[in-house]
Amino acid sequence: MARRGCALLLCAALLVLGAAGAEAAKRSKDKDPLAKDAKDASPSSTRRKSLSGTPVPATPAAPGRGAVMNLCDSFHIRTLNVYCSCSSQQLLNATEASCWVFGKSENESAPIWDSFSSQPNLETLKINVREESIHKFVPTRALSFLRKLKLFEIMYATIAELQPYAFANLTTLQELQLKRNQIITLKPRSFAWLPNLTTVNLGENQIVEVQREVFLGLPSLRRLFLDRNNITILHDGAFMHLSGLDELELNDNQLAVLTRETFSGLKMLRRLLLNNNKLRMLGDCTFCEMPHLTELYLNENGLQYLSVRAFEGLSRLSRLMLGDNALQVLSPGSLNGLARMRYLDLRNNELNTLAYETVKPLMDNFKNLSSYFYIEGKWSSIS
């Protein structure tokens, strides 16, 4: 009996000691901040909250570990050559971004272009290549993430060739500003399947020719600027798919020959700038494919000869600029059919004689106080 009593007392003592140890361990765990932080950091824990009670976003993983960096919060990454300033630094929240390229640009498969997926709501994107820096391509990969983009601008790059589908078939795109990028070649379908595009500016590049099917699937295009390039050839039908185009600027190029087929398809064009090219003559019906043309600029071309039918079909033409050329004769009948002419500039040509019969079809128009007929120059007579 004595042994059984001792055994019972020993068991009771062990139970008491066990309970006390468990309580001490619990208190120790509650006081240990490392243990608490480990619990909070576990996958099953709830998100931490700020003092205001708002959940604090998790810190994104560093680039290269499976996560895409935030395009608008990358200035701290010193290894990049492309940096962007945005209307918002929050993920998914920016609508405008201005980016700068420093030094030699990232290649086309670099992670920086994937980072544009962090801001899919961008509506405006401008890329500026800094002085003495190099960037040789349109970032099609980046554009493919921006399904709401309306305006894209890139300037001061060295893009020798514009590749097919360079703008990722963006259905929302409305305006492309591509001035001063040293572009030489436009590949077929460079501008294709952009249904809401209204403006393309390719001015001040080094383009030498415009082939057929460069501009395809652009039903909304209204303004096309190809001024101040080195264009010598416009292939027949180069604009045949631009039936809604309103304004075409081809001034300050090297064009020497134009035919009726050059402007095939431009049935709604109203404004055409061809000044400062190398056009020495204009043949029959050169502009017949553009019955809605109202403004035609042909000054500073060295023009020497105009066919009697050069302006045939232009019944809506109201402004004709022929100044600063080398015209010696303006044949009777060459201005026939221009019933709406209000502004005619023949200044600084080599016309010695101008037959009254030549300008007679326009004289009633010039009685209007808002009309102008400029014929300054070296005149011997108007007969």
Strand content: 15-25%
Mean pLDDT: 84
Got a strand count? 23
Q: State Rg.
A: 36 Å
Q: End-to-end span in angstroms?
A: 153 Å
Please state the structural category. alpha/beta
Q: Biggest β-sheet: count, sense, barrel? A: 13 strands, mixed
Number of helices: 5
Give helix and strand order, one letter per element, not per position: HHEEHEHEEEEEEEEEEEEEEEEEEHEE
Main sheet: strand order? 1-2-3-4-6-9-12-14-15-17-19-20-22
Low-pLDDT segments = 1-22, 24-65
Residues in helices, as a percent range? 10-25%
Anisotropy-based shape: elongated
Biased composition (Basic and acidic residues): 27-40
Signal peptide: 1-24
Pfam families: LRR_8 (PF13855)
Keywords: Leucine-rich repeat, Repeat, Signal
